[in-house]
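Design a sequence for this backbone.
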């Protein structure tokens, strides 16, 4: 079986590789097998317009339906992969390809949601070959870059210049949008917002969940929204769970909302069924 993974750089497993290897390799093997068996799938969580609550886009969230383990969330395997650049790269490439496949399918079928937001790991965002690969994918599926938004965390943007900055500029030229995910949790200076072509700020759930509890946290949310608006960035709030939060965010000028209050992440099948039912209801 080891031969099967050889092409991906997997080392043949032998008992003398020691305890660390014996703990680590099976997980890597399992993830690589999951990639080739297509056990990893994209779930979709709609983002809605804050005022009208109509769906404007959907975020793809990775799920692993692992035989014998049920449906695993990214927390169960992404942190492991993050420490192995080649593995994370394989996952990110897989996710990009799947997303393009879904998008192309939806467009063909006339599905009204035609834009997808993806989470890309920081390491891949700063990788030199990433843009060329994305370009090729878009071409292969006949998609325009403007149909994609890449969500990345602030950490990516800390480096002055460098590959991440070049990639950002290339993405801007391709029409691909960039969103700063978990905004406000990165302890970073805000100056990068001027240096990088960013399109969207995504307020972290930890801020959203505190709305209504203390005045200070609410003020922080307002400040982030104000910052985004001053810089002409779209502001999205993640993890919206209560109508109180939704109303506060909307009246403070937040553009887009996402959270369990509106929709849970769902399989493509559920997503298309829900959209179909909605179109039927409004017809
Ligand atoms: P994220 O991008 O910040 O995604 C938001 C997470 O919050 C998702 O968890 C989502 O299911 C969850 N969520 C959404 N609305 C609510 C809500 O109202 N309340 C609460 N409590 N949670 C909510 P999930 O799917 O487990 O993903 C966790 C993280 O894993 C993501 O955080 C993202 O950083 C990462 N991730 C997900 N998919 C991918 C992927 O395809 N590639 C990479 N590299 N990372 C991914
Ligand atoms: Mg995200
Ligand atoms: Mg987020
Ligand atoms: Mg988050």
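Sequence:
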């Amino acid at each position: 079986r080891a031969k099967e993974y050889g092409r991906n750089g997997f080392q043949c497993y032998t008992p003398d590789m020691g305890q660390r290897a014996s703990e680590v390799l099976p997980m890597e093997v399992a993830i690589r097998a999951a990639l080739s068996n297509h056990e990893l799938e994209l779930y979709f969580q709609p983002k809605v317009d804050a005022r009208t609550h109509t769906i404007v886009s959907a975020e793809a969230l990775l799920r692993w339906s692992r035989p014998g383990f049920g449906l695993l969330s990214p927390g169960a395997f992404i942190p492991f992969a993050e420490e192995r650049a080649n593995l994370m790269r394989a996952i990110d490439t897989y996710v990009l390809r799947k997303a393009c496949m879904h998008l192309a399918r939806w467009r063909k079928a006339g599905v009204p949601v035609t834009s997808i937001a993806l989470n890309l790991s920081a390491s891949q965002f700063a990788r030199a070959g990433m843009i060329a690969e994305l370009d090729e994918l878009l071409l292969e599926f006949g998609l325009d870059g403007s149909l994609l938004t890449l969500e990345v965390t602030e950490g990516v943007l800390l480096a002055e210049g460098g590959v991440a900055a070049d990639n950002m500029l290339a993405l801007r030229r391709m029409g691909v949008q960039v969103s700063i995910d978990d905004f406000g949790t990165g302890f970073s200076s805000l100056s990068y917002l001027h240096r990088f072509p960013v399109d969207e700020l995504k307020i972290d759930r930890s801020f959203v969940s505190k709305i209504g509890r203390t005045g200070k946290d609410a003020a922080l949310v307002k400040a982030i929204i104000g910052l985004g608006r001053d810089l002409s960035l779209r502001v999205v709030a993640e993890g919206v769970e209560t109508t109180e939060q939704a109303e506060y965010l909307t009246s403070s000028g937040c553009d887009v909302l996402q959270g369990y209050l509106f929709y849970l992440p769902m399989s493509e099948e559920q997503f298309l069924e829900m959209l179909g039912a909605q179109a039927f209801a409004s017809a």
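Residues 1-19 have pLDDT under 50 and may be disordered.
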